[in-house]
Amino acid sequence: MKAGIVGLPNVGKSTLFNCLSNAKAQSANFPFCTIEPNIGVVNVPDSRLEKLEELVNPERVIPATVEIVDIAGLVKGASKGEGLGNQFLGNIRETDAIIHVLRCFDNDNIVHVDGSVDPIRDKETIDIELQLKDLESVDKKLEKVKRTAKTGNKEAQKEEAALTLVKEGLEAGVSVRGIEVSEDDRNAYIKPLQLITDKPVLYVCNVDEGSAVSGNKYVDSVKKAVAHENAEVIVLAVGTEADITELDDFEERQMFLQDIGLEEPGASVLIRAAYKLLNQQTYFTAGVKEVRAWTVNIGATAPQAAGVIHTDFEKGFIRAEVIKYDDFVQYGSEAKVREAGKLGVEGKAYIVNDGDVMHFLFNV
């Protein structure tokens, strides 16, 4: 599962990507400096993992990760191939969620492709290009479906109705995720098309250092503009975050954060939000060899969680021993949790909760 960073050129995408991944994507004051999509595998910050390490004292600790893709800047006309449009749009299609970076700061030294700072206009530019690309996909599919529907095929007629609804929405400037389609129709006819504007989105307002804590007028306008989208908006001073990641010493980083009024790097908040955006959660295994965070989709069953470790665990699943994270912390060890009668024994139907500490029994 991966999230793609999108936005106009020069809004801070590559700088943000560098902060998140510590990979050094080229960052320059001109469009198209990122031509191939850079992919970073980013550790998900999780204080629970540190606490388990403290209690278990294992040989090694392995955090959960999320993939972030830095996609080059889109421009007006990208859907028609302007700039490097088709290639970029293809890269976005391959991601599972979108992190949309909006420039929310004034700086005469950093050029804006449209000559002035206006995050709402920038958002609309990107939205329109993505919607036009989706409209192209829907039109192609609709053409085929209409031919079948004319023969009296009931399934094709249902599909035609759903696709027509999406087409009308896109033509009215509404992203697919905001178009009201029944869940059954969405799963049957819309999801398979992998439409770009159907992907969940997170907005990142890139601000100056002075606006890192409280935001500014640009951030306020973005929050107002996306209120109907049910999307999270994160405020991040990307340039400042870049300075923080350059510091090797943990205490220096903490002092820097305190000086600007932040409890933790904004990049950490963003990584966790991206993880959630991808519909993912964490369960833990905790032993003396290894304390590890494992990633599963929200709603996963115990056998599916076991399968993340090894497919044999899922095939031969017998049961799962489950300790709630808070119980593990309260009692301090697996043995003491057992003594207190707080260890749950769960079968195949068990739905994993975020933070469960799990041990699987299987037989292949």
Please give a structural write-up.
The protein has 364 residues and is an alpha/beta fold. It is 42% helix and 19% strand. The protein is built from 14 helices and twelve strands. α7 links the parallel β6 (201-206) and β7 (232-236). α4 (119-149) packs antiparallel against α5 and α5 packs across α6 (183-190).
**Average pLDDT, all residues:** 88
Q: How are the strands of the largest sheet arranged? A: 2-4-1-5-6-7
Give the % helix.
40-55%
- Helical run tally: 14
The biggest beta sheet reads: 6 strands, mixed
Shape: flat
Question: What is the strand content?
Answer: 15-25%
The oligomeric status of these chains comes to: single chain
Q: What is the CA-CA span between the terminal residues?
A: 28 Å
Low-confidence stretches: 23-35
Structural class, from helix and strand content? alpha/beta
For the secondary structure, the number of strands is 12
Rounded radius of gyration (Å): 23 Å
Order of helices and strands: EHEHEEHEHHHEHEHHHEEHHEHHEE
Give a quick summary of the entry.
This protein is of the alpha/beta class and 364 residues long.
Provide the fold topology.
Elements lengths: L1 E5 L6 H9 L16 E6 L3 H10 L3 E3 L2 E6 L14 H9 L3 E7 L15 H31 L4 H18 L11 H8 L10 E6 L10 H9 L6 E5 L1 H9 L3 H11 L5 H12 L2 E7 L3 E8 L4 H8 L1 H5 L1 E7 L1 H7 L2 H6 L4 E3 L10 E6 L2
Parallel strand pairs: 1-4, 1-5, 3-9, 5-6, 6-7
Antiparallel strand pairs: 2-4, 8-9, 10-11, 10-12
Helix pairs in contact: 1-8, 4-5, 5-6
